[in-house]
Amino acid sequence: MRSIYVIVSFSLTALLTLAVLCALAQPAYAYVDPGSGLFAFQIISTTMAGMIFMLRRRLRSILRGMNLRTGSKSVRPVKP
Question: pTM score, two decimals?
Answer without folding.
Answer: 0.39
